[in-house]
Design a protein that fits this description.
Shape: globular
Number of strands: 8
CATH topology of the domain at 16-31 and 58-158: 60s Ribosomal Protein L30, Chain: A
Strand content: 25-35%
Distance between the termini: 41 Å
Length: 174
């Protein structure tokens, strides 16, 4: 049977889930500079390719536009009554969908920083409250840019998705 619509269910360990598909890629401060092909002509007339030369990109409005867009998405989920305030701690899960070219060149930590900065004083007071950050980047089969953001207020009862991640234990694994 061919269905036109598919229902998805939010993981119950996540308090807030929002994001987008399509549109521009997530810009980063890493994107402020781009590599430039430079060649040096030696005295004997031979050319030598020089590495590690960069120029500053002229348009940084993309970062501010992205921040504004993420803030607007977050404001649909958060207000003064449910913003996660100190001393509460937060888990953030970020899933970036990017193109293959960008996948090979952008650092996942820079992608995360761009989003966390956008969420300050909207989802939580400050990103210093984030004690668990799970971040992934992947290539979408349709070559779409996208971002899903999951935020959980951590409590004794709610440990988020990362609460189950253990690298070692004092007893044998079961």
């Amino acid at each position: 049977m061919d269905e036109k619509f598919k229902t998805y269910y939010q993981n119950p360990k996540v308090d807030f889930l929002f994001g987008y598909f399509g549109g521009d890629p997530t810009p980063t401060k890493q994107d402020k500079f781009q590599r430039v092909a430079m060649t040096q002509v030696n005295e004997d007339g031979t050319e030598e390719i020089l590495n590690n030369f960069y120029v500053r990109k002229p348009d940084q409005s993309a970062i501010q536009e992205f921040n504004n867009y993420i803030q607007e998405l977050a404001k649909r989920n958060f207000n003064d009554n449910n913003k996660i305030v100190r001393p509460n701690e937060v888990e953030v899960v970020l899933s970036f969908t990017i193109t293959e070219k960008r996948y090979k060149t952008v650092d996942v930590d820079n992608l995360a920083k761009a989003v966390l900065d956008s969420l300050n004083n909207i989802a939580f007071e400050d990103d210093s409250q984030v004690v668990s950050l799970i971040c992934s980047k992947h290539i979408h089969p349709l070559k779409l840019n996208g971002l899903l953001i999951a935020i959980t207020k951590l409590t004794g009862e709610r440990q988020g998705l990362g609460g189950e991640i253990k690298l070692f234990t004092g007893s044998q694994w079961k």
